[in-house]
Amino acid sequence: MGRKAKFDDVGTVKQIKGPGRKAKKQKPPKMLPGLPKVEGENDLKKLSHRQKQRAARRIKKKEEIKLIRKEKKKGVKKEDNIPNINEKSDSKNIDTKNIKSEIIKQFSDSNNSWLKSKNSNSVIPERDDDIESYDSNSVIDDEQSEENGLESFDEDISDDDYLAGTLDDVDSSNESGIEDTIPKKKLSTKKRKAEDESDDELLPIEKAAKKLKAAKKKEEAKDNEEMKMQINVASQDVFVFPADDKIDEHIPIPEVEQRIKDILLVLSNFNKFREENRSRQDYTALLLKDLCTYFSYNTFLMEKIMHLFPLEDLMSFLEASETPRPVTIRTNSLKTRRRDLAQALINRGVNLDPIGNWSKVGLVVYNSTVPIGATPEYLAGHYMLQAASSMLPVMALAPQENEHILDMCAAPGGKASHIAAIMKNTGVLIANDVNKNRAKAIVGNFHRMGIANSVISTYDGRHIPQIFKNFDRVLLDAPCTGTGVISKDSGVKMSKDETDLQRCFTLQRELLLAAIDSLNYKSPTGGYLVYSTCSVLAEENECVIDYALKKRDVKLVDTGLTFGTEGFTNLRQHRFHPTMKLTRRYYPHTHNMDGFFVAKLKKFSNVIPKNEESENEEKVDTNDNNDNDINDEVQNTKTVTFKKRPKHGRGKNRTEKK
Amino acid sequence: MKQLTDERMKIFFEKLSKYIGQNIKLLIDRSDGKYCFREKKDRVYYVSEKVLNMGSMMNPDNIISIGTCFGKFTKSGKFRIHITSLDYLAPYAQHKMWIKPAAEQQFLYGHNILKSGLGRITESTTQYQGVIVFSMSDVPLGFGVAAKSTTECKHTDPLSVVCFNQADIGEFIRCEDDLI
């Protein structure tokens, strides 16, 4: 019994659906590839009885002749062929080897072992025999068709069909896949035969020349192939710029990543890898778009960041911005020493290390079995959770004991408490923050840390110079877009646009001028101001400092920080003051801390430079067109702030509304 | 920002003396400058004269804290000491309790101290005496009222309360908004 092949409707083989008796349904057996197609029978006329008889006889006759021929040939061929092959083997050694390897490759693994062990020569002669038999078959066919010329054409075709797929063929196809190579073999052997025949007629020198020619041809062909391969490899590596209409297509993230890498490669050696009709702008525009999609930034911010970094740093910055920085704590030197604190925390199962040579109070926490923000030590005010970068501006400020110090934007009090700790609770510290709710955090932190020399206030920083002008030092950690702390707050990536940035740097400029105004330049120990932001954008850093340098009698001084990259003096269209080198920048990818900017200014007098008109012109030159209206705005507020502003009544908040 | 009235001064010092006794004098007569108590919105701040001068130039509405807050007067006129005063109470404390590390967490979550958690106690502590609570490594953790005298503590069973929690440093996190 077994499976029934449904030969009658081959095209529409249907598997019966639903569970059957057998768990696994078997498909009907496949027809052997060499067999004549059954459906062809339907097309042809059915043979008559006589015809069938004749066909049977014909086959019988053919087989008899075949057998006789084979026996004859075997005897003759072995004598003829073997020397020929030996002759050829020198020149065509590589060729035959290739063919052999091809054949061997096409066997399955299980067969591989015994095939290898067998003498490889045997493969080809056997084939040759087979091919001989095929050849003889075809010869016979021809003869027969001549003999039976009267018979119908259909018959012939059917015969041919039948003969083309002889039993021999079926047998050979049992050794799976060999039949594919047979046509090639046929051709090559035929060629060889022809060559042999022609060789007999040629002189030995001519033969040698022919051989050389053949060898040359082969080499050339090989070279060509190699060239093709190389071209292929090159074309795979070099980035193909997508067509204009396909640029806007959405492609999956892994492809975007690959494309970013490709574009970066192209841009790294633009002359070599570029496409002829594409400019650098095209590539950077595409890179911008891809980076936006891959890191989910908005275009504006990504453009700003791209302007800031060379291409090799860009990716590392963006990637570093995705990963959080290590947790760091600062020892409260008012209450404990770093060594004692480290010991106490290690006893609680916290794994930590000193932060580095540059700080004597910082510790890095690698991991912890207890919540680091709720240990008894934390509650007792022995340490403060504080980013490493936040310690830098205070170190740059270098507060002294018994000074009057202002922290203009203090919340939540990390830097301010650091200042107080360095001052050893002497002098006066004013920790100001405009936001009352955030200022509450300062209260909690200061009391926990045991800071008693402070006033916590909620002024708008821009109004402080109206009350105090006698600070020895001022720390201005200005509110910013937070592009340096994207790892903490990734919302920045999408939410900040041009107007946000403009608002930020306008406010920063105002705050900076106010901070400078509240400084006492006559102070014997001080007169210093430290400006810091957690942003990496030049608009919020160098531009603001540059603005202050023009507007007030201040100069940049060395921050005293031993590490960090220098601030920009040139950036695209901006040309900053040469002393901008003294400012320090910190990046997540180079310093493993939040992106940060620190600048230290010293005030020399209360003089406000008067040449505003000329400065206006300068500013138009130095800043973008976009900045102009903002600058004007700043100018207006400045005139209001420092000249006309009423202290009481309706007009006192005028600047805030602007 | 005003000086305490005599009446409030009396209530305040009475309360304070429960914890630090006669050491209040040391808070007022200091070698490193003049210090004083000032009242603002019912809260009492302990502040140096220098800082106070700066503060007095500011608009009181814009000052949310100056110096150290000691506590506040309740609506009924009593004084309640806040945890923020611990830095000044702890060094001058007359009666102390030390608690075992296992009981630290309990206390910092606002619970009373049981006999089982008590490590050490000052001799001659009477019942309802104000005590400052320390960890065994002498870190001040808060303050409270002794529920039992020292002699009673020795003989009581391990699960009985020996100190009522009044304030603990866990409040810095638990009640950050209510500190001032």
TrEMBL record, chain A:
Keyword terms of this UniProt record: Methyltransferase, Nucleus, Ribosome biogenesis, RNA-binding, S-adenosyl-L-methionine, Transferase
Biased composition (Acidic residues): 140-172, 623-632
Subcellular localization(s) per the UniProt record: Nucleus, Nucleolus
GO biological process, one term: rRNA base methylation
Pfam families: Methyltr_RsmB-F, RsmF-B_ferredox
Predominant subcellular localization, coarse grouping: nucleus
Transmembrane segments: none
Entries under InterPro entries matching the protein: MeTrfase_RsmB-F_NOP2_cat (IPR049560), MeTrfase_RsmB-F_NOP2_dom (IPR001678), Nop2p (IPR011023), RCMT (IPR023267), RCMT_NOP2 (IPR023273), RsmB-like_ferredoxin (IPR054728), RsmB/NOL1/NOP2-like_CS (IPR018314), SAM-dependent_MTases_sf (IPR029063)
Catalytic residues, chain numbering: C534
Compositional bias (Low complexity): 108-122
Region feature (Disordered): 1-200, 609-658
Annotated Gene Ontology cellular component terms: nucleolus
Domain SAM-dependent MTase RsmB/NOP-type: 317-604
Basic and acidic residues bias: start-end ranges: 1-11, 77-103, 610-622
Compositionally skewed regions (Basic residues) per UniProt: 19-28, 47-60, 641-658
Record flagged with keyword Transferase: yes
Molecular-function annotations in GO: RNA binding; rRNA (cytosine-C5-)-methyltransferase activity
Top-level taxonomic group: Eukaryota
Protein's name according to its UniProt entry: Probable 28S rRNA (Cytosine(4447)-C(5))-methyltransferase
Gene name, Swiss-Prot/TrEMBL: LOC112690080
From TrEMBL, chain B:
GO molecular function, one term: RNA binding
One GO term describing the cellular component: nucleolus
Keyword tags: Nucleus, Ribosome biogenesis, RNA-binding
Keyword Nucleus: yes
Domain spans labelled PUA: 95-174
Record-linked CDD domains: Nip7_N_euk, PUA_Nip7-like
Listed Gene3D superfamilies: 3.10.450.220, PUA domain
Keyword RNA-binding part of the UniProt annotation: yes
Subcellular compartments: Nucleus, Nucleolus
Annotated GO biological process: ribosome assembly
Recorded family membership: Belongs to the NIP7 family.
Subunit structure: Interacts with pre-ribosome complex.
Purpose: Required for proper 34S pre-rRNA processing and 60S ribosome subunit assembly.
The name this protein goes by in its record: 60S ribosome subunit biogenesis protein NIP7 homolog
Gene name of this polypeptide: LOC112692559
